[in-house]
Amino acid sequence: MKKLCKKLMILPISILFMACSTADDLTEEWIKVRAIETPKPGSAGSLDFSNYISIGNSIAAGFADYALYTESQENSFPNLLAGQFAMVDANVVFNQPDINSANGFNSAFSTVANNVIAGRTELSLSLLASVPTTGELITDFTGDKSTLNNFAVPGLRLANLETAGYGVRNAYFKRFADDPSTSSVLGDALEVDRSFFSFWLGSNDCLVYARSGGQGEAPLVTYDEMAFGKALSSALGKLTANKTHGVVLDISPIVTLPFFQAVTWDAIELDNATATRLNTSLEAVNGAIKAAAGFTDTNERLISYTAGANPILVHDEELDDLGPFFDNLVTAGQLTMEQRASLVPYEQSRPLVKGELVLLSAAALLNTEADGDNTERNTPIGIVIPLGFSFMNPANSNGDRYFLNTEEQSNIVTARATYNRVISATVNELNNNGADIALVTIQPSLVDVLGLDVATATKLLLPTGSADGVQGIDIEGITLTPDFSPNGVFSTDGIHPNSRGHGIVANLIIDAINARWGSSIPKIDVLSLRGTIFQP
């Protein structure tokens, strides 16, 4: 069992490698031999890009691979855009609050109290896993704050864009805020004599709930349509008050991100002999669950394994707690105290079902030993011990943070669609009243690269025009995929784009600018940008 569990742990990421390693080799070879085209001259038209500013969250800041680091910052779509703007406007200057760190700070893999400081992650070809590099703590920006152009802040929600003193709670804003104790992100940005802007916010107002596994109130409960619209209208109204042109991006699909797709609900692969041994060892558990026939969710708790793919066993706080029932069996003399103790992990447990989504954060735990690799017991997480159950402190069990049930997914999908309607309506209203904003709808391109069919796109409240059911996006004859494999467009954290992903976003913005204002800004050579970072 121990060896089996160690093999299973690498399964989700290894599938990505097997699917794409050959394609990546071909892509790299093609890039080496293809002719490098000389950029065609372009024109800014009537636009002035000389003092372009960016407002956004972690994506616009360049956050990738669980960290904000120098290379990711340099390849952020705002910085890439500024480079293209400079081809048509010699006066373009774009300054970012340089992080000055090769690997950045990775909060997901760090334990600062124990002096474990992790940096960006890379894909290990030998381990078939995402591994962190050595990182550095976040330090203050030491440059001239008055010359900054990129005001994107990792973790920023639209709800907090005008929050005074936001630097007190957000270390990434604190490092470059004019005054961390009083400044707001928008307030600092408005101090710039801007000539053009990009604005991409709103995803974190859904994503915080999604990344928590749907814990707490749904997005539209904590931040309803009216509040979202009021904040957006206020921000864009102030940005366009001096007749500044700009682009606004809508919110891309969330539950389709690799963070929610890389680990499947049935990621437990077993052979027949192992499945049989597990079923035998769990007979007493299933017997105790069956005894609770009076509970409405009894059948969905039963654990049964077969050869092939099997559901992950999870701790689910939404289930009725069978603890008191098991205690009564002890009182009635039907269970010994030892038997009762063995049932503690299963008081609120069940196998996942098709349609539920597992968070990437579960990958590091699945199939590892819940008891710290105690060789006397087999306690593989997600197989024998429910994912999220705290073996050492059962009262602290929390499995909900590792998966999204269908209701939670619906909350996220509905919120994103609602917010996007507000974004579109707000831009239209402002334009009808004299503003000049281009709306960049990123959704069709994501539907295309994800390979969604019409039925799935409709279910996710996404546009269906590009829903061809064929996964990947073609860039000059090369197919880039919606994952963090070597040929993917996402970074290893499963949420943020890698450099190629940023190039695609930048080109969508360039298309929108050229279409609305008649400019001819050259597009970015996406394949010249790197994909996922990997190591031997």
Topology:
Elements: H1 2-8, H2 11-33, E1 52-56, H3 58-61, H4 70-74, H5 77-85, E2 118-124, E3 129-134, H6 171-174, H7 185-190, E4 196-200, H8 204-211, H9 219-222, H10 225-239, E5 245-249, H11 258-261, E6 268-270, H12 272-281, H13 283-291, H14 298-301, E7 308-310, E8 313-315, H15 323-331, H16 337-342, E9 349-351, E10 357-358, E11 403-404, H17 406-432, E12 437-440, H18 443-450, H19 454-459, E13 473-475, E14 478-480, H20 499-517, E15 534-535
Parallel strand pairs: 1-4, 2-15, 4-5, 5-12
Antiparallel strand pairs: 2-3, 6-7, 8-9, 10-11, 13-14
Walk me through this protein's architecture.
46% of the residues are buried. It is elongated and about 85 Å long. The strands form six sheets. A four-stranded parallel β-sheet has the order 1-4-5-12, with helices on both faces. The model is unreliable at 1-15, 17-27 and 29-33 (pLDDT under 50). It has two domains: 37-261 and 406-535, Rossmann fold, CATH 3.40.50; 268-354 and 357-404, no CATH class. It has 536 residues and is of the alpha/beta class. A hairpin with a 4-residue loop joins β2 (118-124) and β3 (129-134). The protein contains 20 helices and 15 strands. α5 (77-85) packs across α20 and α10 runs parallel beside α17 (406-432).
